[in-house]
Design goal:
Radius of gyration: 22 Å
Family: Belongs to the class-III pyridoxal-phosphate-dependent aminotransferase family.
CATH topology of the largest domain: Aspartate Aminotransferase, domain 2
Mean pLDDT: 97
Number of strands: 15
Order of helices and strands: HHEEEHHHEHEHHEHEHEEEHHEEHEEEH
Shape: globular
Helix content: 25-40%
Oligomer: single chain
Organism: Nguyenibacter vanlangensis
Pfam family, one: Aminotran_3
Protein name: Aminotransferase class III-fold pyridoxal phosphate-dependent enzyme
Bound molecules: pyridoxal-5'-phosphate
Number of helices: 14
Distance between the termini: 37 Å
GO molecular function, one term: transaminase activity
Structural class: alpha/beta
CATH superfamily of the largest domain: Type I PLP-dependent aspartate aminotransferase-like (Major domain)
Length: 449
């Protein structure tokens, strides 16, 4: 592999997601070449322990023979099958049936998208279909959370509440709103879980009232751990209380499990922690563990049936993509699900326990303001003054240093802005690998100081 040539062509021709175009051209890419288990190798032969599972997606680790074989077999047999015009295909049907068996509540139907952003975009459309079908077209406002991330489709980027996705993009749209994040480290109500829950429920009621009452509000969205906003773990009971408030207000409770799904927090779906029964749920990432693109939108029986029964016979519901329920992605999804069911979730739970214990020990580090973990999803919040919870000054360039030093240390994680290290190791990690990752982070933090 001619690394210099690739870096040069990359600079000249490839536009990268959510990146500084100038910065990328100046720095040049690191070219990843291969992966096995939790380890990547780049084009210079450097081995890197992937503490972020690619982009919180390669939950199985790299190079799983059964997954590769399932994709290969499906490519040979039938590489594409449309879901339009009355056609379907075996892997998509089997995957839908198996996933809905595991899904919470009455989420008995799934629409397969290509990834998380278009899954979220799909929910926004299904919400419109649903409220129109109920004869309540005026129920239009949608509420998300500050620090929430729901992808970067046009409408989804407005539901997202991170500044980089709003800048120069004409979002949020006028019907999109955000409540304070249930962040125990920085919530104005203080760290007490009950106080945060109380304040969040109240804020939802107040916002609904300010938008003209429940008749004007269609849905509330949340992640069960806010991922890209800085791995924020809400207090136990928060999501259940928000679900109850939504039911009381007659607004749809939509859970975005794009990151938290597929064992990332322990169980197959994070809804299981509190017995949630959302009206809609989005997934992607761990669904195929990154081996092929695929996402999904689960609909509850009530939502599905309301749309179906109020659409005149023979009239199409106009939501679809060429690659919805792609057979190769679906075959891969089935093989990945076999791994989750075959012990991978258990390994993730054990490794996650070890990760949480190791992170708790980091609390004494002068740069660490808070650590948080739920299963194999964790965050380390950095501060320059613990008492004042002062975020590092961007002029210190900590994010850049974290990326560079981590690479030199042979570990990968995500540095959010300048103040949070995000971790989402593959669920296949051994406790030794978690130790390598955590020891590496300590070495990086000591160097950054
Ligand atoms: N929703 C959540 C919670 C996410 O974390 C992401 C991506 O990180 C998305 C949606 C968008 O998914 P994708 O990047 O597959 O479009």
């Amino acid at each position: 592999m001619d690394t210099a040539r690739l870096i040069s062509l990359d600079r000249e021709h490839l536009i990268h997601p959510v990146s500084s175009w100038r910065g990328h051209e100046a720095a040049g890419a690191t070219i990843l070449e291969s992966g096995k288990g939790a380890w990547l190798t780049d084009s210079e032969g450097r081995r890197l322990l992937d503490g972020f599972a690619g982009l919180w997606c390669v939950n199985t680790g790299y190079g799983c023979d059964s997954v590769i074989e399932a994709g290969r077999r499906q490519l040979e047999k039938l590489p594409y099958a449309t879901g339009y015009f009355g056609f379907s295909c075996e892997p998509a049907i089997e995957l839908a049936a198996r996933l809905t068996r595991h899904a919470p509540g009455t989420l008995n139907r799934i629409y397969f998208s290509l990834g998380g952003s278009d899954a979220v975009d799909g929910t926004l459309r299904f919400i419109r279909y649903y409220q129109n079908a109920r004869g309540m077209p005026q129920k239009r406002h949608v509420i998300g959370l500050e620090k929430g991330y729901h992808g970067s489709s046009f409408a989804g980027s407005g539901l997202t509440a991170l500044p980089v996705f709003h800048r120069d993009a004409d979002v949020p749209l006028p019907w999109q709103h955000h409540l304070p994040s249930p962040d125990p480290y920085r919530h104005p109500a203080g760290p007490d879980g009950e106080a945060i829950i109380h304040a969040s429920v109240r804020a939802l009621h107040d916002m609904v009232a300010s938008l003209g009452g429940p008749d004007q509000v269609a849905a509330f969205y949340c992640e069960l751990v806010q991922g890209s906003g800085g791995v924020i773990v809400p207090p136990d009971g928060w999501a259940r209380a928000m679900q109850a408030a939504c039911r009381e207000l007659d607004i749809l409770f939509v859970v975005d499990e794009v990151i938290t799904g597929f064992g990332r927090t322990g169980p197959l779906f994070a809804c299981a922690h509190e017995g949630l029964e959302p009206d809609m749920m989005t997934v992607a990432k761990g669904l195929t563990a990154g081996y092929a693109p695929m996402g999904g939108v689960f609909l509850s029986d009530a939502v599905y049936e309301t749309i179906r029964d109020n659409t005149p016979p023979g009239v199409a519901i106009g939501h679809g993509q060429t690659y919805s329920a792609h057979p190769v992605s679906a075959a891969i999804g089935l093989a990945v699900l076999d791994l989750y069911e075959g012990g991978l979730l258990d390994n993730g739970v054990a490794a996650g326990r070890h990760l949480a214990a190791r992170l708790a020990g980091l609390g004494n580090h002068p740069l660490v303001g808070a650590t948080r973990a739920k299963g194999m999803l964790a965050g380390i919040e950095l501060v320059t003054d613990k008492a004042a919870k002062a975020k590092p000054d961007p002029k210190l360039g900590i994010a850049g240093k974290l990326g560079r030093y981590g690479y030199e240390q042979g570990i990968l994680y995500r540095a959010f802005a300048d103040d949070v290290i995000g971790l989402a190791p593959p669920l296949c990690c051994s406790t030794d690998e978690i130790d390598i990752l955590c020891d590496g982070i300590v070495a990086v933090l000591d160097r950054v100081m």
